[in-house]
Amino acid sequence: MDTTQLLKGVLDVAVLAVLRTEDGYGYDIVRRLRDAGLGDVGDASVYGTLRRLYAAGSLSSYVVPSDGGPHRKYYAINAQGRSALESQTVTWLDFAGAMSALLDENRAGASVNGEN
Questions:
Q1: Start-to-end Cα distance in the chain
Q2: Total structural domains within the chain
Q3: Distance CA 114, CA 2 (A)
Q4: Domain limits at 66?
Q5: Cα angle value 54/90/78 (rounded, 5°)
Q6: pLDDT in tens, 98-114
């Protein structure tokens, strides 16, 4: 299954979840998402999501100077972002539970009917 469309629908909440525990800059956030199992996430998608969440007021940012290259723009989740994450987490868990139940029903039905 191509996960590209699934990622588009959950990238906001995934980025907020990554930033819940530690601030990060663009590529660091991409790496952390990939390490968490979202290997298909694209750099451009994450950078766009960061800009959108920042513009919406869910993230704050600050610049950290770098000795070996350009300064890095770090993003941090703020109170509005934490509230959005909490709300989106409930929505996701409800949705994932419904999908799991539906898929389990289909699997059980296939087993009863002798299908695989």
A1: 18
A2: 1
A3: 28
A4: 4-112
A5: 25
A6: 999 999 987 776 665 56
